Amino acid sequence: MGGIGCYSSEMLPDGGPHDRGEHAAVTDVRAPVPLHFPTEAEMPESTLHLTLRTFLYQLLLFTFGESCCIGSEQFVYWRASDPKTCLAPDAFLKLQKTACVSSRRS
């Protein structure tokens, strides 16, 4: 059974182009421009801000423990094509730890 992604050829009206070995010709109009996604930025932080941010992170860690991904001061990019649409929240919590990439526990 051939198909595209999760669709079988029976679901497509004509079986789809992938079943017949046909592919649309792709022509690049311009050369690709490499994107740079910064991993850090210089941000002034007062002692009070650092203390409160650390407390919030520790509180989330204590409350949710190993069941969630918890992070602090890590860039989050909203669009894969735009490195300018990002933020670095003081703390964040991702439910369901199954897809957690890394943890910053020491």
List keywords for this structure.
106 residues; alpha+beta; 2 domains; two-stranded antiparallel sheet; two-stranded antiparallel ribbon; 6 strands; 17% helix; 21% strand; elongated; disordered N terminus
Sheet having the most strands: 2 strands, antiparallel
**Residue-averaged pLDDT:** 75
H/E element order = EEHEEEE
Given the helix and strand composition, which structural class is it? alpha+beta
Helix content: 10-25%
Q: How many separate domains?
A: 2
Strand order of the largest sheet: 1-2
Q: Flag low-confidence runs.
A: 1-9
Question: Approximately how much beta-strand content do the residues carry?
Answer: 15-25%
Describe the protein in words:
- The structure is a single chain.
- The chain has one helix at residues 47-64, and strands at 3-4, 7-8, 68-71, 76-79, 82-87, 92-95.
- It is of the alpha+beta class.
- The strands form three sheets. The chain has a two-stranded antiparallel sheet. Strands 3-6 form a two-stranded antiparallel ribbon.
- A hairpin with a 2-residue loop joins strand 1 and strand 2 (7-8).
